[in-house]
Amino acid sequence: MRYFRNIALVPRLDRRPSGGDLDRKRRSACFIARIAVDCGVAINPSTVVAQMESDIVYGLTAALYGEITLKHGRVEQSNFHTYPMLHLAQMPKIAVSIIEGAEQPGGIGEPSTPPIAPAVANALFPATGKRLRSLPIAKQGVNVT
C-alpha cells in the first residue's frame, strides 16, 4: 500500500532564549519547526501529531549528526553511544497543523523526515551566510539546537 500525503514544513531560526540574535561567530540558534499535513481524514489526530514530531527527531538527527564511518572495512558506530541522537534538551519546538482533507483514512508514514535536512540548510543560509551542501550539518560548524 502506498500513502500519498501532502505536507508543508517550515523550519525557522528564532532568537536565542537570552533575546539575542543568531550569533554568526558561534553559529547557533533556537529552532522551530512548523508542519502542516493533509492526511485525509485523521481518525486519531494525536497519533498524526506524534508521528510528525518523531519524523522531525529522526530527520533532524540524521541531518545534524548522521554519519556512518568505516574503519578497516567495518562500521565504527555500534549503537547510540557512537551514533548520536537528539536529546530532549536539543529538541526544537514543533507546531503541527492537521488539514482535514477529503481522502479516505490511511497511514501517515514519515512524510516530514525527508524535507527537514534541506529545509534547515536553507533556513541557515540567511543567518550564517554559508550554503550547506553536505551532511551532517554539525560537521559544518553550525549548531541549530
State the gist of this model.
This protein is of the alpha+beta class and 145 residues long. The chain is built from 2 helices and 5 strands, in the order E-E-H-E-E-E-H.
- On the 0 to 100 scale, the average pLDDT is 83
- Give the beta-strand count: 5
Strand content: 15-25%
Report the uncertain regions: 15-28
Give the SSE order as H and E letters.
EEHEEEH
Measured on Cα atoms, how large is the radius of gyration? 17 Å
**Mind summarizing the main beta sheet?**
3 strands, mixed
The neighbouring-strand order within the major sheet is: 1-2-5
Distance N to C terminus:
36 Å
From the coordinates shown, what is the CATH architecture? 2-Layer Sandwich
CATH topology: Aldehyde Oxidoreductase, domain 4
Work out the helicity level. 10-25%
Structural class: alpha+beta
If helices are DSSP runs of H or I spanning 4 or more residues, what is the number of helices? 2
The CATH homology group name: Aldehyde oxidase/xanthine dehydrogenase, molybdopterin binding domain
Itemize the secondary structure elements and their pairings.
Blueprint (H helix, E strand, L loop, with lengths): L5 E9 L15 E9 L6 H21 L4 E2 L2 E2 L17 E7 L16 H13 L17
Parallel strand pairs: 2-5
Antiparallel strand pairs: 1-2, 3-4
Can you offer a commentary on this structure?
- With 145 residues, the protein is an alpha+beta fold.
- It has helices at 45-65, 116-128; strands at residues 6-14, 30-38, 70-71, 74-75, 93-99.
- Strands 1-2-5 form a three-stranded mixed sheet. The protein has a two-stranded antiparallel ribbon with strand order 3-4.
- The longest helix is centred in the middle third of the chain and has 21 residues, at 45-65.
- The model is unreliable at 15-28 (pLDDT under 50).
- The protein has one domain: Aldehyde Oxidoreductase, domain 4 (2-Layer Sandwich), CATH 3.30.365.10.
- The protein is globular.
